């Protein structure tokens, strides 16, 4: 049995800065970043955002070594985001090799937010790797050097920073030219990589780059990967907020050919800079440690620098530096931050006595081992993004914001049609498309989907239908599948909340008899609103007989909640239920709230609420996901959950601690061994089928997933059950997708598809066994917020929650 990987304590951000750039890896940041006191040389570690990257000039031109060229060629091959499209999972799945279209369910006509992008010519395109000698790291300088070669390259070329796509050949497989950068000779080598069809996966990133350039020519501003129209922003002066409308776009290949997927997005900004927050916090500190309060409010938050439309996460504040401080440029000269921003962006910094913010910049899971220099930011130029906890509690403000971001299907399609019309009427955009022999077809794709039959729910001796994915009302009137009595339990409340705690106990005792649950009187205990007080109370009154601890919390203080859960999970393992007082004060009927709390408590005690007919006998279901602490950049955690009974009511779970940013799980053999051992203890025979749902797989990792995780499980099952056939199905789940589906109702109005609607053609891949499913029913739909934060508005985060499923491996 393989051991669980050893974990090492993470280094602090300050330690990394002191060690220099060789040790500055984004994955090592501590959860609570310490102030960089006394580190005055830290500015030398990295220039402000947008500063020139260090180049490596050479006195004479020398040909790159074979190993260097090989490395560059490997680095500049198919882009990371598109490696998945060269993975063919259907070739090994005989039953879906010809078609993945299913037959069950009722047919339904659907519309999507995809527009077909067709090629008007069969001419080949030519991809060239571009090598600079000496190497030029700054992307702007690379583009500037290429722009001087218009006679050679022509005016139609797409450059991604490493390679070039041309509609014509340069005539040679390898061509060298010499240019100059600040009077330094630079040799540029163009190596023909391959000839491409217009629909080749290797063309995708170039088409997306081309499309982004077209969006810029439509006066849209790029923030992150999306584009927004700040000229049509909506200002909420009362709340000091503004919303920029925008679009999410991507060009990808599907069964119908290349399509442009477009969706509506919004960017929410606060009319407040980081310096405003620092000043206001200092004024309100009143003798408290102002620096500590500022750190708590700023560290981990996201800011937007409008001079380059980039977002950054604040990792620390350096109080000893100011905009008057200097840093070293790539040419070795010293310049102050004030002069740099004036010289580079024409931006004037007015306040000289403000500290500087430090950010590690954009951190990607695929580049966790790449040394990365910290970046200095001036608070005055950093606009805050996202909503504070106080803002989210303001119902009136959230309601006003939702009127601009929430969209029903009709309004969404109208916005998208307006966007597509603007593309077709823009002469510059049309010329760019014609130059590359591309054309956007009229109208969005439409096709037939299938709505599966509702699954029947079994609760006790009753059965009822799952109508629109909601059966909560039926659960109140029937005994649960497996009810657990609650005989010894505690309710811990704070001063002044005794009556609320007593009322909650009485409501629980009122609703549970119909569920088959016996709830005896709890021991009511008062504690102060601190972690230490809750823990002291639990240490004094909890015992081995205690089945459940219910904590009534006056506020949503995360520190108190985390402290209670940590103590009751690690130090003194007892199931616990935390309830906010304001939840009990809501206008909903107390019976409804008490019912939901009782259901949660019954599950935590080992009970079961209901089961469903899944149509499979003795099937084990496994869920795998990874959590990456991007904010604090600590170790990543892989979660493994497996059912251990045929009814899917008993579960085994295990966590694996991994290196920060590591997505693929190495300890699956251990988890699978334990899960199957527990299954054998509960059942007389091993499971006939094992169905794995793998969540959170990043772009470009499908092949690695097949080679590592699928191989681990396949090899273990083959070695452990040689005489018995255990069928394995491995499915990747993707939730963050921009594909949207609509259904036309009577009168021509659009609506969300019903839950259980499956789409397995037209917008699926020819190389994959993939499909979409509408997984939930949403009454109020709105736009997903594309920001550095999760903005929660009524009705969920998506127009209609859709999951994309990709079957990687299947033994039938």
Automatic annotation (TrEMBL):
Keyword annotations: Cytoplasm, Developmental protein, RNA-binding, RNA-mediated gene silencing, Translation regulation
Domain annotation PAZ: ranges: 273-386
GO MF entry, a single one: RNA binding
Biological classification of the source: Eukaryota, Metazoa, Chordata, Craniata, Vertebrata
Superkingdom: Eukaryota
Subcellular location: Cytoplasm
Protein name per its UniProtKB record: Piwi-like protein 3
Record has Cytoplasm as a keyword: yes
Chief location bin: cytoplasm
An annotated GO cellular component: cytoplasm
Ranges of biased composition (kind: Low complexity): 44-53
InterPro entries: ArgoL1 (IPR014811), PAZ_dom (IPR003100), PAZ_dom_sf (IPR036085), Piwi (IPR003165), RNaseH-like_sf (IPR012337), RNaseH_sf (IPR036397)
Renumbered residue ranges of the record's region Disordered: 20-74
Parts of the chain that traverse the membrane: none
Family named by the database record: Belongs to the argonaute family. Piwi subfamily.
Piwi domain segment(s): 548-812
BP GO annotations: regulation of translation; regulatory ncRNA-mediated gene silencing
Polar residues bias: start-end ranges: 22-37
């Amino acid at each position: 049995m393989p051991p669980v990987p050893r974990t090492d304590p993470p280094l602090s951000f300050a330690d990394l800065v002191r060690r220099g750039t060789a040790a500055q890896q984004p994955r090592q940041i501590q959860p609570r970043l310490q102030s960089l006191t006394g580190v005055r040389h830290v500015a030398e570690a990295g220039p402000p955002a947008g500063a020139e990257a260090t180049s490596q000039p050479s006195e004479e031109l020398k040909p790159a070594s074979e190993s260097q060229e090989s490395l560059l060629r490997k680095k500049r091959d198919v882009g990371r985001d598109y490696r998945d499209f060269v993975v063919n999972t259907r070739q090994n799945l005989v039953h879906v090799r010809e078609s993945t279209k299913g037959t069950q369910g009722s047919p339904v006509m659907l519309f999507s937010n995809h527009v077909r992008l067709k090629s008007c010519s069969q001419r080949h395109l030519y991809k060239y790797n571009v090598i600079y000698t000496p190497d030029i790291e700054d992307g702007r300088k690379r583009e500037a050097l290429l722009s001087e070669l218009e006679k050679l390259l022509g005016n139609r070329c797409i450059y991604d920073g490493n390679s070039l796509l041309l509609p014509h050949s340069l005539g040679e497989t390898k061509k060298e030219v010499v240019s100059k950068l600040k009077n330094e000779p630079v040799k540029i080598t163009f190596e023909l990589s391959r000839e491409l069809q217009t629909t080749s996966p290797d063309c995708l990133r170039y088409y997306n780059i081309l499309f982004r350039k077209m969006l810029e020519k439509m006066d849209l501003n790029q923030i992150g990967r999306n584009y927004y129209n700040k000229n049509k922003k909506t200002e909420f002066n009362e709340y000091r907020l503004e919303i920029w409308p925008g679009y999410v776009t991507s060009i990808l290949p599907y069964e119908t050919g290349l399509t442009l997927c477009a969706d509506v997005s919004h960017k929410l900004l606060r009319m407040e800079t980081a310096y405003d927050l620092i000043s206001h916090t200092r004024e309100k500190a009143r003798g408290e440690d102002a620096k500590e309060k500022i750190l708590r409010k700023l560290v981990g938050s996201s800011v937007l620098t409008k001079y380059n439309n980039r977002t950054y996460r604040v990792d620390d504040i350096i109080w000893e530096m100011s905009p008057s401080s200097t840093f070293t440029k790539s040419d070795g000269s010293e310049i102050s931050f004030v002069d740099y921003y004036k010289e580079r962006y024409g931006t004037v910094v007015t306040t000289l006595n403000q500290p500087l913010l430090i950010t590690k910049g954009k951190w990607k899971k695929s580049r966790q081992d790449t040394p990365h220099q910290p970046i200095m930011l001036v608070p005055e130029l950093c606009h805050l993004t996202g909503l504070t906890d106080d803002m989210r509690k303001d119902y009136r403000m959230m309601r006003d914001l939702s009127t601009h971001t929430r969209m029903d299907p009709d309004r969404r399609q109208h916005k998208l049609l307006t966007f597509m019309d603007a593309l077709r009427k823009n002469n510059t955009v049309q010329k760019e498309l014609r130059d590359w022999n591309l054309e956007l077809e009229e109208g969005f794709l439409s096709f037939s989907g299938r709505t599966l039959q509702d699954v029947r729910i079994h609760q006790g001796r009753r059965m009822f239908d799952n109508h629109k994915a909601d059966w909560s009302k039926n659960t109140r009137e029937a005994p649960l599948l497996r009810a657990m009595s609650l005989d010894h339990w505690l309710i811990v409340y704070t001063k002044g909340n005794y009556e609320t705690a007593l009322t909650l106990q009485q409501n629980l005792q009122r609703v549970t008899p119909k569920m088959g649950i016996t709830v005896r009187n709890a021991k009511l205990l008062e504690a102060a609103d601190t972690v230490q007080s809750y823990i002291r109370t639990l240490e004094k009154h909890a015992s081995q007989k205690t089945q459940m601890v219910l904590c009534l919390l006056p506020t949503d203080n995360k520190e108190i909640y985390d402290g209670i859960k940590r103590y009751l999970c690690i130090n003194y393992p007892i199931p616990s239920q935390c309830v906010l007082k304001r939840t009990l004060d809501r206008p909903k009927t107390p019976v409804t709230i008490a019912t939901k709390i009782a259901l949660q408590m019954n599950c935590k005690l080992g009970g079961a609420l209901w089961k469903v007919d899944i149509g499979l006998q003795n099937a084990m279901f496994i869920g795998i996901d990874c959590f990456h602490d991007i904010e604090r950049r600590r170790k990543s955690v892989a979660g493994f959950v497996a059912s251990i009974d045929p009814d899917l009511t008993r579960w085994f779970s295990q966590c694996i601690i991994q290196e920060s940013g590591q997505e693929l799980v190495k300890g699956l053999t251990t988890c699978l061994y334990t899960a199957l051992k527990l299954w054998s203890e509960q059942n007389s025979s091993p499971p006939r089928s094992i169905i794995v749902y793998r969540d959170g797989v990043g772009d470009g990792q499908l092949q690695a997933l097949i080679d590592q995780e699928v191989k681990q499980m396949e090899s273990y099952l083959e070695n452990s059950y040689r005489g018995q056939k255990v069928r394995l199905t491995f499915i990747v789940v993707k939730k963050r997708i921009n594909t949207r589906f609509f259904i036309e109702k009577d009168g021509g109005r659009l609506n969300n598809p019903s839950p259980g609607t499956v789409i397995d053609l037209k917008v699926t891949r020819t190389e994959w066994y993939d499909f979409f499913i509408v997984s939930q029913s949403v009454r109020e739909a709105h736009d997903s917020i594309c920001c550095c934060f999760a903005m929660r508005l009524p009705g969920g985060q998506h127009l209609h929650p859709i999951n994309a499923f990709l079957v990687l491996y299947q033994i039938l």
